[in-house]
Each structure stands twice: as structure tokens, then as C-alpha cells.
Amino acid sequence: MAKLILSMDGLTLKEIPLTKERTTIGRKPHNDIQIDNLAISGEHAVIVTILNDSFLEDLDSTNGTFVNGQQVKKHFLQNSDVVELGKYRLKYVNETPQQGSAADFEKTMVLRPDMLKKAAEHVESKPAGDAAIRTSAAEAPPPTPRPAPIAPAQESVLPLASIQVLTGGNAGRELALTKSLTTLGKPGVQVAVIARRPVGYFITHVEGAQFPIVNGVTLDAQAHPLKDHDVIELAGVKMEFFIKS
């Protein structure tokens, strides 16, 4: 399980296990990690944890959020990263292999008119190449023939899913959910992330006062499983989640 080690001036103050999907950091008492210091904004940052992956987002704090000396807005956390908030340090510790990658996080998608088409074309171009690699591997003969081989049990393969925009300037556009984490929404307004897990697809609120709506029902802070043809309302845009046959 991932955790944070809070310290100041080299003195460890406490350890915080990341057991929640959303861990808020700030000066106000309602935060999961409260740091009562004027250099810290009331709601300074949030860490979203999905399976073994965690990513940090600065919530437009006054003094900014830094990771390993570099100011960040969003950052995919990796083992031993140090989050710097004023004089305080939060060391991220996660020795479990992560599901996603920094590259996956950097290529997540937001619903901007000039970007959705390019991103959709980019992610849709990859499955064919991946399939070709898998086919080649499958057709390669085994190195050493064995008598009466027993076929191994086949692992269940998660079907590919997509999001189709139903309203707004991008209506009709389609985005294949091929990444471990796909971010949707408008930064500063409302953002959610769709996680592609071994057991299915889940949507989680990340940013904004309003939570995403699925089939007319407002979600809470927990991850919500998506089903075929679910209609998502996010940042004033309706979109449909569907499984590709």
C-alpha cells in the first residue's frame, strides 16, 4: 500500500497510508492531511489513488506545489518522489509495481475542441500495432516441443471501451479508452478520471465543486463502475460510455 511520510526540517512528523481514492491536503481542518501553516492554502492539493497508481494535482494554491524541486500542476507520483509544500515535505512511498506510467498520465485527455479529434486519432491508431505484436508472439513456435502439452488457462481480456461525445462542439467525436487512466473534463471547472482496471472501467471525480452525473444520478467521491451505454454528464457535456464489440 502506498503511503506519504510527512516531515519538516528533516524531522518525520507522521506517516499517512493512501487508503482513500481522494486524499486532500490543505490548511483547513476538513482536509485529510491538514498542515496548519500560512504558506499552505486552505485547499492546497489532492492525491487521487486508483489501484497502485497515485497522481497529485495542485488546486490552484497560492504558493504552488513542487515535486522533486519542480513546480507541478499535475504529476504522476512514483516511488520516492518528494512533494514540497512550503517547509513541509511529503515523501511518496510505493514499492508495489504500478499499473500506469508517467507517459500514460501525460497523454490523458481533456475535452477541448481542438484536441479531442487529435487525441482520439492518436489512441485509436495504437491497438492495431499492439494486436500485430500479440499475433506475432502467438504464432511463434515454442522453443522446445513437449509431449502432450496442456494448454494454459486463458486470462480474461477486458473488452475495449470508448467514450462518444453527445453534445457541444465535439458532438460525435469518439475517444478509445486504451490507457490505464484517461482524464475527461475542463481543468479548473470539472475533471474526472476513467480507470481501465482488470475488472472493468471506473469513473472517479478529481476536480470541481460539482461531481459527475451518470444516468441522471450525481456520483460521490468514490469510484463508480461504468456499464455499457452509461451516459456521463461532465463539465456541461454529455457523453456515452460503450463497449466496442
Topology:
Blueprint (H helix, E strand, L loop, with lengths): L2 E6 L2 E7 L4 E5 L6 E2 L10 E6 L2 E6 L6 E3 L2 E3 L1 E3 L5 E4 L2 E6 L8 H5 L9 H9 L1 H14 L21 E5 L8 E3 L4 E6 L3 E8 L2 E8 L5 E2 L2 E2 L5 E2 L4 E5 L2 E7 L2
Parallel strand pairs: 3-4
Antiparallel strand pairs: 1-2, 1-11, 3-5, 5-6, 6-9, 7-8, 7-10, 10-11, 12-13, 12-21, 14-15, 15-16, 16-19, 17-18, 17-20, 20-21
Strand order of the largest sheet: 2-1-11-10-7-8
Shape, per Cα inertia axes: elongated
The fraction of residues in strands falls at 35-45%
Structural class: mainly beta
Share in helix? 10-25%
How would you portray this structure in words?
This protein has three helices and 21 strands. It has 245 residues and is mainly beta. The strands form four sheets. A six-stranded antiparallel beta sheet has the order 2-1-11-10-7-8, with no helix packed on it. Strands 13-12-21-20-17-18 form a six-stranded antiparallel beta sheet. It has a five-stranded mixed beta sheet with strand order 4-3-5-6-9. A hairpin with a 2-residue loop joins strand 17 (213-214) and strand 18. The longest helix has 14 residues, at 126-139. It is elongated.
List keywords for this structure.
mainly beta; six-stranded antiparallel β-sheet; 11% helix; 245 residues
Task: Describe the structure concisely.
The chain has 245 residues and is mostly beta strands. The protein has helices at residues 102-106, 116-124, 126-139, and strands at 3-8, 11-17, 22-26, 33-34, 45-50, 53-58, 65-67, 70-72, 74-76, 82-85, 88-93, 161-165, 174-176, 181-186, 190-197, 200-207, 213-214, 217-218, 224-225, 230-234, 237-243.
